[in-house]
Amino acid sequence: MSLIKKPHELTVQPTIKTLIYGQPGLGKTTLALSAPNPLLIDFDGGVHRVNAAHQCDTLPVRNYQEFLDVLKEDLSHYKTLVIDTAGKMLDYMGAYLIAGDPKMGKRDGSLALQGYGARKAEFVRVLKQISIMGKHLVFVAHEKEEKDGDQKIIRPEIGGSSAGDLIKELDLVGYMEAIGKRRTISFDPCEKYYAKNVCNLPAIIELPVLVNEAGEIVKPNSQLTAIFEAYQTNLEKRKVIAAEYAELIEMIDVKIESITDINTVNEVSDWAVKFTGWIWDAKLQAGMKLKEKATEIGLTFNRETKKYEPKS
User: Fold this and answer.
1) Backbone angles phi, psi at 214, to 5 degrees
2) CA 129, CA 132: separation in Å to the nearest integer?
């Protein structure tokens, strides 16, 4: 049996890695804690700013070793690890590496070039470890503005090249902002900000009001859980469509193989015109295969009659 899998044979991933970023005070941590059964890894010391009704089990990080130690504990009760913030995590990681090997740092306490390489390796290692644990992973980050010529673009505030390393590993990147009194998150990239949406989530998702002006809890904190469910549902749908696509391509190949002369070419051509169940690029594939087969047996397509006929 081949180890190579067709698209419809691939297993839908059970966990999701995401990043939420935006300005301070928008409720990024609260949104992150709306993921399934979260454990907050509080590198930023900001859990006290979260409404008590929305707080969860928390590791108040004092050093990076504590984080590594927690990853060795029995975390089976938790479905999600929330890292708040990604930038602070990297700061702690850098200090840990320098403490272990002074060559990793400079005299002013910042990372040396060798230290940045070691931090990148450690960062990727931790991502893989959490993935193997079978946990959802949510990073929280602040935003920063960068210039690309005259164009300004908002990106997550994550140190050095680690931003690129992180984003490559993620399934979703959402930019959170306030529009008037509305809070929204978007996973669709645009010229204004960076985002990542690989499962056709809505372009802009309006976040519900959880606490009213009187300080009363009016809705459960479950938005990210709903987004994760939508993500995985879309992946399942895509897997089903991939199976249907594979069957359709196989049917096209059978029809092309049945072509032996001008009559059978036109029969298949007529079928392609009338068929309405095309998926993705299957219609294009059918057209290319049909044209190639017709050319092979000396026929050309007459655009006026819409039929294949012998080359003149």
Assistant:
1) -85, 0
2) 5
Cα dihedral 294, 298, 303, 306 sign: negative
Distance separating alpha carbons of residues 55 and 213, to the nearest angstrom: 19
- Cβ-proximal residues to 142 (8 Å cutoff; 6+ apart), any chain: 21, 22, 23, 24, 85, 87, 156, 157
Amino acid at 222: S
Written as tens digits, the pLDDT of the chain (312 aa) is: 566 666 666 666 678 899 999 998 899 999 999 999 999 999 999 898 898 889 999 999 999 999 999 999 999 999 999 999 899 999 999 999 999 999 999 988 888 989 988 998 898 899 889 989 999 999 999 998 887 777 788 889 887 666 676 777 788 999 999 888 889 999 998 888 889 887 778 888 999 989 888 888 889 999 999 988 888 888 788 888 888 998 999 999 999 999 999 999 999 999 999 999 999 999 999 999 999 999 999 999 999 999 999 987
CB neighbours of residue 78 within 10 Å: 19
The pTM of this model reads 0.79
- In whole angstroms, give the CA distance from residue 180 to residue 177: 10
Residue with tokens 């990073």: 139
Quick one: which H or E segment has residue 173?
A: strand 172-179
**Residues 6+ positions from 153 with CB-CB distance below 8 Å:** 145, 146, 147, 191, 192, 193, 194
